[in-house]
Amino acid sequence: MDLKPNFRPSFFFSFLIFFFFLQKPDLGSASNPKCISTERQALLTFKQSLTDPSGLLSSWSGLDCCKWRGVRCDRRTSHVIKIDLRNPNQTLRPYDYYGEFKKGGLGGKIDPSLTRLKYLSYLDLSSNDFNFLAIPEFIGRIVSLRYLNLSFTSLSGEVPPSFGNLSKLESLDLYAQTFSDDGLTAYTLHASNLGWLSGLSSSLTYLNLGFVNLSGASDTWVEDFSRLSKLKELHLYNSELNKLHLSFSLSSSANLKLLEVLDLSRNSFNSPIPNWLFDLTNLRKLYIQQVLLYSSIPSGFKKLKLLETLDLSDNTLGLEIPAVLGYLPRLKYLDLSVNSFRSQIHSFLDALSKNKENSLVSLDLSSNSMYGTLPESLGALRNLQILDLSDNSFTGPIPSSVGNMASLKELVLYTNMFSGAIPQSLGDISTLNKLILSFNKLEGRIPKRLKFKDPSIYAGNDLLCGKPLPKKCPRKQ
Ligand SMILES: *[C@@H]1O[C@H](CO)[C@@H](O)[C@H](O)[C@H]1NC(C)=O
Ligand SMILES: *[C@@H]1O[C@H](CO)[C@@H](O)[C@H](O)[C@H]1NC(C)=O
Ligand SMILES: *[C@@H]1O[C@H](CO)[C@@H](O)[C@H](O)[C@H]1NC(C)=O
Ligand SMILES: *[C@@H]1O[C@H](CO)[C@@H](O)[C@H](O)[C@H]1NC(C)=O
């Protein structure tokens, strides 16, 4: 009877030990999952139809497919969950030689045996060269996928509507610029009907259809993408879109409300900036470069309080640069270069200098028709690192307050009508490493105190390059 109280703790203790030993081998096998043989067969079949000049798949033999290069199995169930066969030479893209790129990669055919991997959640075949192989419809049957990267693969044809069955997909990258035997190619993929996107509406957070020809979907694209309620990044760079719908309304629905990054650059909208953009109040980065935008910058931008990067360069936007942009609290990069802005800079710069939260790092207003003088408030831009006002019609002296711009690295003012003496206060800016003042009516010398690591200093029309000489110094005209 006395034993009982003693028995219990020791029983409990040995139970713990027993439990520990029971767990131990299990833990061991969990960190070394063993391949399931039917999945191994599927992988071998997949391998057989690929070409592999660089031996990327040389480890794909033996029993334990979980140890093969690029393959990962679930620790608990041993199912293949990840295949990452991205060409390791993909970092050479896109401007290096095709041959080097191709040497590192896979080619051939993509076998439907992949659909036998019922737990595959991650598939990356990017930067390999499938030489215009039709993009496989059966990928839409791997419904366990969460991540699919087929970017830069020279797959071709219509993006299969079966992709709409990938209802768990969080990230889809079909960026379609790539190399072929003739050099850089693009637009091998097209999507004329984007209805299938609705199948991804509650999962997709990242979508890249750059260089995918969407011209056939131009009439409905805004509506189609607006169904993606979880989307955070949408990249439609160079996607042959030719319509920007002005009357569309996003405000009534929750859709696209999470969008943080939107790239619509290099399409042919031929349109003013639409107001529905200002309902995307989570936007941090907005790129609408070179799309034939015209008219002026709407005051609606004041609603985009989280905006950090705004690139509207290379359009024909005009009139003035509105003060609302100066008041955006998080704006770091503003590129309005190559447009038709024809105004003074005062109201915008004054707004910036009054904005206590102003965190602007880079301002590019080059190649517009801006005129008038630069205000002393310029000196208040203490976070600004890059200021490019070149190729405008600014007049008057460079204000001496410029010396207060304590973070300035690049000051580019060439081809204007600045006059007077080069301010000696420039010598106070210890961070300055690029200064281009050529093609103005400035007088005097560059302050001696300025020391340039990478000097490209021009003043007046005289070349004043420091040493060592930069490779490209425009000659005195
Ligand atoms: C990448 O390209 C280089 C040639 O630049 C080649 O020697 C190398 O084998 C390639 N890498 C792989 C993993 O094949
Ligand atoms: C897809 O792969 C390419 C490299 O081939 C990479 O640059 C890109 O970031 C990947 N996309 C995503 C969404 O991870
Ligand atoms: C999506 O899956 C369903 C059910 O499995 C199937 O009937 C349908 O054909 C698939 N849709 C496409 C577009 O492949
Ligand atoms: C895109 O597709 C349309 C037809 O749908 C075609 O007229 C156009 O030439 C294509 N664009 C490119 C760059 O291939």
TrEMBL record:
<dbReference type="InterPro" id="IPR055414">
    <property type="entry name" value="LRR_R13L4/SHOC2-like"/>
</dbReference>
<dbReference type="Pfam" id="PF00560">
    <property type="entry name" value="LRR_1"/>
</dbReference>
<protein>
    <recommendedName>
        <fullName>Leucine-rich repeat-containing N-terminal plant-type domain-containing protein</fullName>
    </recommendedName>
</protein>
<feature type="domain" description="Leucine-rich repeat-containing N-terminal plant-type">
    <location>
        <begin position="37"/>
        <end position="74"/>
    </location>
</feature>
<keyword id="KW-0472">Membrane</keyword>
<dbReference type="InterPro" id="IPR032675">
    <property type="entry name" value="LRR_dom_sf"/>
</dbReference>
<keyword id="KW-0325">Glycoprotein</keyword>
<dbReference type="Pfam" id="PF23598">
    <property type="entry name" value="LRR_14"/>
</dbReference>
<keyword id="KW-1133">Transmembrane helix</keyword>
<dbReference type="GO" id="GO:0005886">
    <property type="term" value="C:plasma membrane"/>
</dbReference>
<keyword id="KW-0677">Repeat</keyword>
<dbReference type="InterPro" id="IPR013210">
    <property type="entry name" value="LRR_N_plant-typ"/>
</dbReference>
<feature type="signal peptide">
    <location>
        <begin position="1"/>
        <end position="30"/>
    </location>
</feature>
<feature type="domain" description="Disease resistance R13L4/SHOC-2-like LRR">
    <location>
        <begin position="112"/>
        <end position="343"/>
    </location>
</feature>
<comment type="similarity">
    <text>Belongs to the RLP family.</text>
</comment>
<dbReference type="InterPro" id="IPR046956">
    <property type="entry name" value="RLP23-like"/>
</dbReference>
<dbReference type="InterPro" id="IPR001611">
    <property type="entry name" value="Leu-rich_rpt"/>
</dbReference>
<keyword id="KW-0732">Signal</keyword>
<keyword id="KW-1003">Cell membrane</keyword>
<dbReference type="Pfam" id="PF08263">
    <property type="entry name" value="LRRNT_2"/>
</dbReference>
<keyword id="KW-0675">Receptor</keyword>
<keyword id="KW-0812">Transmembrane</keyword>
<keyword id="KW-0433">Leucine-rich repeat</keyword>
<dbReference type="InterPro" id="IPR003591">
    <property type="entry name" value="Leu-rich_rpt_typical-subtyp"/>
</dbReference>
